Amino acid sequence: MVAREQFEVELKNIETTIIELAKEAGQALEDAVHALFTQDLELANKIIERDEVLDKKELQINEEAILLIAKEQPVARDLRRLIVAIKISSDLERMGDNATNIAKATLHLGKHDLVVHSSLKDMKDIAIKMIDLSTKAFEMQDITLARKLSEMDDLVDSMYGDVVREMLEQTATNPQKIQHVMQMAFSARFIERFADHTTNIGESILYLVKGESFDLNQ
């Protein structure tokens, strides 16, 4: 196999691992919010344990990308593909951390009779659509799909603001709920941050295709 073909194979393997990591991060969020709503402490513990797998996969992507840069000294678009691989894997690892933090909030709350704010599930549903869209945009290197993430992120941000306002109002009339309210607000924040990272992925895709930096979080 000639050098160029070998480079393409190794780069494609890195990109395939990124897509796997994206699916695992999305599943972690799905499971974390489910555990929160159902007070499934066993599932919450499993999510926390699985985070180590995501961390190792990010490390693997980074090491393979850096090795390929050192070995092949790529330029222009090839170099951008490797830089973007490192940036996206970092965002995905942090998205896994956000899901893990929701699992920790579930453990912190334990079994209780209080109701989880319904908007958290709506926020999660949009965040899952965003990671699916960002993964598709990455696979296809489609900047039109990448730009759509900005509007979806605005919606998640707005929902997060509403949840926090409603939660704070509850503390005024039910101060005994403060611990519950804080964990709900934290969980909403982790979903909001998860969505923010998908827009970072969109920005990386725009950088890959256009060779310029964009801000989709404005």
Automatic annotation (TrEMBL):
A Pfam family hit: PhoU
Chief location of this protein within or outside the cell: cytoplasm
Q: Where is it localised?
A: Cytoplasm
* Protein keywords: Cytoplasm, Phosphate transport, Transport
Superkingdom classification of source: Bacteria
- UniProt domain PhoU: residue ranges: 18-105, 120-205
Question: Which InterPro entries does the record cross-reference, listed alphabetically?
Answer: PhoU, PhoU-like_sf, PhoU_dom
A GO CC term assigned to this protein in UniProt: cytoplasm
What SUPFAM superfamilies does the entry give? PhoU-like
Set out the biological process GO terms recorded for this chain's protein.
intracellular phosphate ion homeostasis; negative regulation of phosphate metabolic process; phosphate ion transport
The entry's family comment says: Belongs to the PhoU family.
Subunit and partners? Homodimer.
PANTHER family according to UniProt: PHOSPHATE-SPECIFIC TRANSPORT SYSTEM ACCESSORY PROTEIN PHOU (PTHR42930)
Functional description taken from the UniProt entry: Plays a role in the regulation of phosphate uptake.
Protein name as annotated: Phosphate-specific transport system accessory protein PhoU
Which species expresses this protein natively? Radiobacillus deserti
